[in-house]
Amino acid sequence: MTSPSAHDRAARPLWRRAAVAAAALAVTSAMPIHSVRAQEKTSITDRARREAEQRDAARATALHGVIDGVVSDTLLQPLNAADVTIVGAGVRVVTGANGRFRMLQVPKGQYLLVVRRIGYAPTSGVIDVPAGDTLRLAYTLVRSNNLLDTVRVRGERITMRMLDFEKRRQQGQGQFITQTEIERRGSLQTSDFLRYMRGVQVSVNTTQAFGGTQVFSRREGGGFDANQQQQYCPMQVLLDGIILPSYFNLDLLPPPKQIAGIEVYSGPASIPPQFSGADRRCGVVAVWTRDGY
Questions:
Q1: Is the pLDDT score of 31 beyond 80?
Q2: 86: helix, coil or strand?
Q3: Which of the four CATH numbers 2.40.240.10, 2.40.128.90, 2.170.130.10, 3.10.580.10 does domain 151-289 have?
Q4: What's the CATH number for 62-143?
Q5: Among 245, 174, 259, which Cα is nearest to 205's?
Q6: How high is the mean pLDDT of the chain?
Q7: Residue 210: how many CB atoms within 10 A of its CB?
Q8: Residue 152: which residues within 8 A CB-CB, separation 6 or more?
Q9: Measured between alpha carbons, how far is residue 89 from residues 59, 64, 109, 162, 244 in Å?
Q10: With the CA atoms of 82, 86, 92 and 96 taken in that order, what torsion angle do they form, in degrees rounded to the nearest 10?
Q11: Is the pTM of this model over 0.85?
Q12: Which H/E stretch holds residue 38?
């Protein structure tokens, strides 16, 4: 048998590669046209979906922010198991062993934040969450000797704070709005109920860093500004007994459907002892929620 020449041996790999390529072309050509088009369509759809997801993620980042904070005591020792809540937003977290907490994807805007822990007096603050950025916070809690609210059962569960609310209402000092009245009126904003109170002025304030709808006493802190317009005194607002910041924006309160009662004392003479404090000369507005903060 004649052995293949050197030329034949060199040409054989080229022949084999050509044969493989021809076979692959034949298989591709044999595929139905609709199958090829379906693959192309699927690839385009997947790419469009991924691009849409990326755009949605970028848009969410641009409209939301992150809250990164720490809670400690007066000795700067971190407090674990502290409850941190954004009022009215349904956002609640608990601090870890290092006292830190983190809230992700919080819609940008202004909120009331409440910090509580058993054995400590609660605190609150108005925050402004930026878009696409991180807000860093630090809160200090002071030890308290107050006991927790007890629960009494009279056909339904009633907390001690609402029993005290009813006692004060029966005494006739101050002005009160009950849960039944709140449900009957059907207002959208909690501040709407204060507009009907005697000796109270509800107005929009744009001169403060955290402005908004605020409540003032007409009876106390009188005077006139440079334009001879009567000035009213900002009332202290409490939420479930928690002292809220001065010139508090009422728009940050929980909606009426979460409110169990409101009581108003437009002057210091009528304020009950449990609401007394360093600055109560303008009166007090106490708001009580159904579940408590």
A1: no
A2: strand
A3: 2.170.130.10
A4: 2.60.40.1120
A5: 245
A6: 81
A7: 18
A8: 158, 160, 163
A9: 20, 14, 11, 23, 17
A10: -40
A11: no
A12: helix 33-63
